[in-house]
């Protein structure tokens, strides 16, 4: 009998835990919408995300550190270049 009561208690804790997590997620989404976050505008009015700038890197032949391709010197202390 005690095993059954313990099982029911554990199931109740899990059930209420999921309900609490769902409520917190809904509150967070509502706050984000009110603050003008990503869900604030309809899909047609969204601006595309900005592309991050990538830079080509080359390996320093002397010390092996990767540096920008347009760099003149490595900059690593003790490197001859």
Helix content: 40-55%
Oligomer: single chain
Topology pattern, helix = H, strand = E: HEE
What characterizes the major β-sheet?
2 strands, antiparallel
Strand content: 5-15%
Shape, per Cα inertia axes? elongated
- Please count the helical segments: 1
- The stretches of 5 or more residues where confidence is low (pLDDT under 50) are none
Describe the structure.
This protein has 81 residues and is mainly α. Helices cover 41% and strands 7% of the residues. The chain contains 1 helix and 2 strands; from the N terminus they run αββ. It has one helix at residues 2-34; strands at residues 57-59, 66-68. The chain has a two-stranded antiparallel ribbon with strand order 1-2. Strand 1 and strand 2 form a beta hairpin. The longest helix has 33 residues, at 2-34. The N and C termini lie far apart (79 Å). 0% of the residues are buried.
Short description:
41% of the residues lie in helices and 7% in strands. With 81 residues, it is mainly α.
Question: What order do the helices and strands come in, and which of them pair?
Answer:
Blueprint: H1 2-34, E1 57-59, E2 66-68
Structure characteristics:
mainly alpha, 81 residues, elongated, 7% strand, two-stranded antiparallel ribbon
